[in-house]
């Protein structure tokens, strides 16, 4: 029995026994090659559940929208599970209201190639689950091209780096799709929308674009699970993962925290150690 | 364009109420001289300094930013500066990554008894920012 079949069978059982009110997963891929998110509330609807490389969205995002409906089952790959862990740590979800169907992930294929985030994936298997569907998969070798590009970028002079990022972020139309798809961006009023006081300019402006992306990356520090949802959602194709990878690396190296891998470890920026490195402070 | 010789930087200084602000006060009552480049904003704790404050200061035309609070272990609120330190570490790394010149934003611990140190710090920061020249990167220009 393959994974999709096993997943359908378990989803059916859960819905028939009324253990959950809904199973969130993915349906079969549409013509565009991307699987739509499927919200199955009856055993019949669960017949369409699929597990494949065409499943792009981070499902933790949808849990926030149905959290008052009762117990919900969710299909969770490495990044979904890590997002769920972060949301649990931040008291946005209740563990008893979740039934996590863990599943190993082989990465998202987009336009015939592995998505950027998945090419350097470190956690293909769920870190938290109630039951595991199928076998865990081995972590893939990180794509050397991406690692090399990152290294080359960091070796540029500050002015060159600024030029490169300016050219990239000048294209940002501030549609905030990156914020909307992010499961860990859930503030009722985002700082970009605040109007009393208005914190950030509303128009297209390089300075505001830069500040938006810097602050967004900072808000994700120690929380971003590098699922790549923001990168996939960007209509102008800005390499947002470059910021996220950098911040995640800083947090890993300085504080030894990896977002969403350990439910009992406080998120990096809410805790501290008295002997945290402070070589940058005079 | 102001020539490099006569460039007088504007530096926004976020000083914690309990240590650094008192340190600046001590520098004042001790009649110590330091360059008139800083504009002080008093905050309750270095933990109150949101990275957004720092970026907004640069957006609005500050040439440099100084953030200063109590030494680790001396925080009036016990852990404010420890939490701030992690936040500043990530901000500092990200600013360098984006290509903001090192030295544009300075973090320092200054206690209430370090008036002399405060005067020296401001002198150093002013020199550093002077060398970097006016802030052109994050400054918001009207179209």
Total number of beta strands of chain A: 7
Strand content of chain B: 15-25%
Oligomer: heterodimer
The average pLDDT score of chain A comes to 90
The succession of helices and strands of chain A, N to C, reads: HEEHEHEEEHEHHHHHH
Spatial order of the strands forming the largest sheet of chain B: 2-1-3-4
Low-confidence stretches of chain B: none
Looking at the structure, what is the overall shape of chain B?
globular
Describe the main β-sheet of chain B briefly. 4 strands, parallel
Question: Looking across the biggest beta sheet of chain A, what order are the strands in?
Answer: 2-1-3-4-7
How is the biggest beta sheet of chain A arranged?
5 strands, mixed
How many strand elements of chain B? 4
Q: Pairing-aware structural class of the strands and helices of chain B?
A: alpha/beta
- Terminal-residue CA separation of chain B: 18 Å
Mind telling me the C-alpha Rg of chain B? 15 Å
**Fraction of residues in β-strands of chain A:** 5-15%
Number of H/I helices of chain B: 4
